Predict the structure.
Amino acid sequence: MLNSKPRKILIVGGGTAGWMAANLLVSKWPDVDISLVESEDIGIIGVGEGSTPHLKLFFDAIKVSDQEWMPHCNATYKNGITFDNWSHIAGFESYFHPFAAQTDDTFTLPHFFNNIRARMQGYQVDAHPDKYFLETYLTRQQLGPLPAESFPFGVAYGYHFDSGLLGQFLAKRAQKQGVNKIVANVVDVALNHEGNLAAVKLSDGTTLDADFFIDCSGFHALLLQKALGVSFISFKDNLFNDAAVVMPSPVTEVLPVETKSTALSNGWAWKIPLTNRFGNGYVYSGDYIDADKAETELRQHLGLLEADVDARHLRMKVGRVAKHWHKNCLAVGLSQGFIEPLEATAIALSFNTIAQFMQYFQQGNFSNQFAAEFNQDINARFDGIRDYVVCHYKANQRKDNDYWRDNAANTHISETLNKILYLWQHSPDFVGEMYKHNLMGSYQPKSWACMLAGYGVFPPLRAELAVDLAAQQREAEALYDFIRRCGLNFKNHRALLANMAG
Ligand SMILES: Cc1cc2nc3c(=O)[nH]c(=O)nc-3n(C[C@H](O)[C@H](O)[C@H](O)COP(=O)(O)OP(=O)(O)OC[C@H]3O[C@@H](n4cnc5c(N)ncnc54)[C@H](O)[C@@H]3O)c2cc1C
């Protein structure tokens, strides 16, 4: 392997993952010759319109502000996700999972956790998450996540965007910084005598060599899986969904600041607001419903049964590779793995993969010294997200057909998730135990608590336990007033975006 900075890096694939990699590489290593090859015939997957706050970290890393990219990509802000219709327990039919705000830990979470503790003992207290988070309030009031300068607490936020336009924006920017774009089909891959990647062969007979290769070829997985033979570990036993149907719908005057995830008969539907349309999709398991029926159900859900709107059907391969960095190749994006998009984490994983790889590669003087450690870290991120997504299917409380019953009865869950579910049911100090046993994985205890409380995973109430209702009421009012007054520092979402567009 190399022991000096690579002279040439070749990225194969020009989807979001490829162009994110190109931008990060060129911004940190401008002296390296970086090329990206993409195929016009094959194209990009063209879905993936919601992010976590990691997309902000990515843009911060390449020094691009919201104002510079959002208007080009019809982007909107995202405070979190509402989960509708996942639980059929009265009072728990819907909950909001917010991104973190600095006001959470000190001011509002202690109330939430106290009430969870009391509710787990059977006291009749309000332990539904929706009243305890500033970002939930902002979302219900259609307020964007950027506070006035005088408000000293930040809130984390993600985005919604047109994935095609985001790819174009990133491609243009990377090329301006010096990345060389090649449009061609890769038809073969050559290895050298050490089994490292040597070059890719294009359909016109030419070859492109490099010292290091980034595999961003999507589900085609040309380099790491196909050429280097790294194995793929399927999550199909844990997560049943393997298909999606996608279609747009007209945007409304009120522009939500959230993704909506609504449980349907055999999966769930996303609704993502962009400035010019809603992006919608139904993620389902082909073992339980066929593509035509899924499309009809999505149309029904959106009120588009009679509308002349085209649908796109997609298959998803859910799981991850055993190693993301092997020999002189790093896989990023769908080529390294994919967890169904319920928590919109793919871009976050791509960002973490590239940023962390660059750090380890450089630290090891551009050798594979830290590859094993890196692979372990990235695997832990994938598995942590998988566990959190699986928990939605274990905890949601729906039992109305085979799909939901089989998910609830599924025993293919990790030891970590088993422990978390056990602690929720049995430990009076859920949060403390999560930290003590280092069980958070990719999510903080507040996110786990939000989901489990949001679905109403509580024991029956015990009528004999007395509750001071007046004291509860006073506490709830004081908390609401605190959150409402914090909210005065935030602007209407649509106005915020209009301002940005100039
Ligand atoms: C239903 C669904 C919903 C999703 N929702 C979200 C979401 O809300 N949030 C999120 O973060 N992510 C989401 N994702 C994931 C997201 O779409 C991807 O992570 C993201 O688009 C990156 O894809 P990619 O760049 O890895 O692959 P692709 O976009 O598929 O790009 C692959 C590239 O490789 C090139 N290529 C392939 N073969 C060859 C060849 N032989 N020669 C030359 N070039 C080649 C293609 O031309 C293309 O440029 C979703 C995915 C699915 C399936």
In short: Residues 12-18, 37-39, 42-45, 47-51, 163, 185-186, 216-218, 220, 222, 244, 281, 314, 316, 333-335, 341, 344, 346-347 surround flavin-adenine dinucleotide (CB under 6 Å).
